[in-house]
Amino acid sequence: CFAGMNGSAIENFSCVIYNIFLMNCTWQAGRDAPADTQYFLYWQNSRDEEEMECELYIKDENFRNMGCIFQNVSIGTEKAYFLVNGSSKDSLIQFYDEYIDLYKIEKLMPPSNITVNCDEIKNYCIIQWQRPQISHSNKDKCFNYEINVKYK
Question: How many folded domains does the chain comprise?
């Protein structure tokens, strides 16, 4: 059983990785958490690495930590571990924890260097692009693209 007041743990925890190496995590305060509750996020990228506290919190209008921005995140093969605990002068706050495969939360950049060469006489176009950069090691996983051509 969790120590702490029921309904005091954070809710709706989610993270996304974007721009190759930035990670943004957000959450909402527990429904029944006291107004003075402050939350703290710790994470561990793999079992070999040290657990680290967030260095750059996102705060709400009451200066309560409601998210974190991480820089220089690298995606490994293990699940990352996230723990958010809280403190209040009045009561014990339940913690929230979750293991996440970081590659599953990566938002890919769009393709780059897109070129379009059309031959109006032969009535065809050649469209080329470079695959977007991705941060994790499994670089040759299948990429599928959809081209939407609109005629004006």
Answer: 1
